[in-house]
Structure formats: structure tokens, C-alpha cells
Give the backbone structure.
Amino acid sequence: MSPIQRQLQRLRHLVFAVLCALAPLAAATAAHATVEVNVNRGDVQPLPIAVPAFGGGQVGADIAQVISANLQRSGLFRPVDPASFVEKDLTAAVQPRFGDWKQINAQALVNGQVTVEGGRLRVDFRLWDVFAEQQLLGLQFTSSPENWRRVAHKISDAVYERLTGEKGYFDTRVVFVAESGARGKVIKRLAIMDQDGANPSYLTPGDSIVMTPRFSSNSQEITYMALRPDRSQIYLLNLESGRRESLGDFPGMVFAPRFSPDGGKVAFSVEKGGNSDIYVLNLQSRSSVRLTSDPAIDTSPSFSPDGSKIAFNSDRSGQPSLYVMNADGSNPHRIAFGGGRYTTPVWSPTGEFIAFTKQTGGEFHIGIMRPDGSDERLLTSSYLDEGPTWAPNGRVLMFSRETPGGPPKLWSVDVTGRILQPMPYPGSGSDPAWSPLLN
């Protein structure tokens, strides 16, 4: 068994351990050896992978750089320093000299070729197991030249899936609240960017305070709250057409909208007279149903992936905690019983976890637990961490972090808590929401 095959087993067992057991696993890698993977110790080492510049000029070098950065940011891969490369000028049409890559301990190799024909960009790439000296993957992508970054993200997803057995999450976008201006005069605008911080753009002009943007299942619509001095409203924004429409007028303040998994409904909260309850609006009929009627504050609804249940935040127990109910509002029951204040629950795309914000003493945390409240794990701890959102493969979370006196910044953490890092976006941002994989 080659080193890359052993390492791939380690990565697969890491994924399995995190998503299924969150505990140590062992796997046979050869008749005479056993590799133990304990995600709590974080002893799975990133896989050394070489991503030389693709042939085809500057765009080929740029595509390789994006792929390398994506894989490195996942925490599961360690791109080999290009300065150590022995073989130069690889093309997708020729088998690499494996000895040159073994020499620098590159266990996997991604190489490719970029051509432009008839105004269309074509990218051929290959993924190699260096020590087994065999091709693991070979694909071709075509697109318009200006979409070269998306091609790089798609290749990153293909490599990630082949080497980990999981879907990737790189060909995605993030909508968030971009903040600018001096403290006390902050302008909050809805913004969108690629998951790696590239191509940021504003979606609203900054004439109102925007909060809690959320993607629909088709990635083409966003729902969000806009707060003005006289009222609040929930809007739908179509990213393709730019059309914006209000969900209607409600008595009281409306906030915390989120789509159902099929995109046909939006759940949200309505506050009136100091009490807030959760409603669901059918987008086709525009009829709404009230789901909670407790005198406590009920908010932050989040559907399970199959649409059958809703996680929400309520202080009906005396302080904010997490609850789950059926999608029709029946059988509400508490799932969080640890010390501290729980807020902003969000169901993972796989259905296996609910992420949340937790405050204990003077610290804030991003955490996860099973839908029944078991296996609670705090992944981060800082002055102010809040508002988690899931990558579409359910393995990585993005959230906003503030330091004392500093602006909010976007960060990410994986479900082991081992891979914690700031996002590449250089500006101030909060309330992130991750899109599904793009089509």
C-alpha cells in the first residue's frame, strides 16, 4: 500500500470519526500494521500534495494557485513548496516522472493544461498517486475565460472528493453583512463573495441596517431582514435578476428569516409587545402560520434538511436555550441543558448536527451537538464568536469573530475544532451564510 493510500485511509477515517462517532477509530492499512485516528488528539497529518502551475500561461498558474490555496485551507492537505519541484513544465498529456516527486515527498500530484479555443476556456487536469505511480482522476472543464476561478474551485472539489470520499465545498459563495465606517456610524450592506473571499460585491446600498441573510436551496435567492427607524421588513432578493420583494407587512418587528429546504417556505420571528413567536410563510400562497405561542421569546428557526423539524432558540426555561419541534409546531422540546446561554441554532446539511452560539461567563463559543442534544462540543472560544453557518458538506463552519474594540471578521472552523482560521476576506463582516454547491 502506497503512502498516499495509507494517508487517504487516515483522511477517510477522520471524516467517519468526526461525522459518525466523534471518537477514535482504527483501520487496517496493511496485514502487519494498524493506524489509529483520534480526532480529539488531532493526529491526522495533512497530506503532502504538489500543485504545479498548469500549462497555458498566467491563467494556468492562477488556477493552480487557487486550487492549492483551497486545499490548504481545508486543513487536510499540505501543498508542497513549488521551489522544491524537480520536474518542470508538466502537461496533462504526459505522465509525470514519479521519481522526481517522490524525492520531495509529494504523495499526490495535480497537474493540468489550459487552452483557449473559439473564445472558450478548456482545462484538462490529472490527479496522481505518486508512490503508487497511477492516475486517480482525469477530467476536463470548459467555460468562458472570465470564469477561470470557478473552474479552479470545481477542480478543487473534484480532488477533495477523490481523496477524502466527501463532497467538496469550494465552488460556493457566501452572503454576509459587510461593515464599514467609524464606530457609531457603521454602514451595514448585504455583500456576497466566493467562499475564498474573491469577487466581493455589494447587494444593498447601505440605506438600512441589514441582518441575517440566508440562501435558498437553489443558491439564486436570498432572504434577509432590513431594519429602518420606523419598521423592519423581510425581503427576498433574486441574485440573477436583482429583483427584490417584501414578504409583506406584519404587526410588530419581523426578523431571523430562513428558507425551508425545498425553498417554498420561509420561517421567521415576529416580535410584538415584548413577546416573539415563530411563523412560517408559504411563498406561493403568501399565507402564514404561527408555530409557537409561548409567552417567552422564540426565535432563530432552522429547518432540518428533510424539512420535518425546526430547531429554534427560546428563553422559556429562564434563559436562552435550544429547542426542536415538528415543522407544524407540535412537540416542542428542549435539547440543550449545559450551563450558559445558547442562541442561533442552525441544522447541518447532513442532518447530523445542530450548530449554535454559546455564551459562558465572559466568553463566546461556536459549538455543535446532535439533534437530541447529545455530544455537545465547543469548537471555538473568544471574546465574541457568533452566527455559525455550515459549508454544504457539513464539515466546516463559518462565523464572525470580534476582539475587544475591533470590527467583526469572518472565521472558519471544522467540526473537530482542529482547523480554526480567519477567512481570506480582508474587510469587516458578520452574519455569514454559506450557499449550497453551485450548479
Observations:
- Residues 1 and 9 are 11 Å apart (CA to CA).
- The radius of gyration is 23 Å.
